[in-house]
Amino acid sequence: MARKSQSTSRRQGEPEGDTEPSTRDRIIDAAELLFAQQGYEGTTTRAIALKGDVPLGLMSYYFGTKADLYSEVVKRRSAEHAADLGRALQEVRDRPDQENVTIADLIDAFFLPVVHRAMDCGPGWRAYVKLLSLAANTPGSEPHTKSFAREYAAVVEEFIDLLKRKLPGAREEDVYWAFYILNSAIIHILVENESIDRLSRGRCKASDLRTVAGKLAALFDAGMAPLAAGSR
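Request: output the structure for the sequence above.
Response:
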């Protein structure tokens, strides 16, 4: 098979020697970090171009508007992110000792894959996790996060189903309330706003997500348990 020439693989108008994947990825990488640090409104396309070391004109050439770029940033990792959670929940569902599965185990399966990505997979993943949490708290973000919402919906349904199985005596609406409160806590935690650092005078660190995850699981395990008996 004949090798595709560089001239045909390069997009029309793109600078000589610059290939589409590397330029596009640099823009998305830079945007991901800046959106996480400064938010959508606080990030300009000029700042993204500077951080990505690309000409400003290529921003609109590749992505159109800043809103289009934001959507692409969210979309890039969404399937992989949701798949991590889906695998962890499936592992819990497949355990042969279902009688020994705790609510804490379910919460670990739902949260620890996110913690792993944020802490072990480089600054891009950490920025992505924070960006999603910021978006969840920002009115008007929904049109830009549709790709993640689609991937995430199946994971949420799986987690809620596992919760219902573990809390057979709970009213259905209480299970949904429990998830809502848990998810709200997770969103706040992943923003890493350092309020706990200030409150504890440095004894606790918002960036220590593994410690936070352990405490979150223990607290919600104890807090959700009474729901199994139909208690408020």
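The first helix runs from residue 6 to 9.
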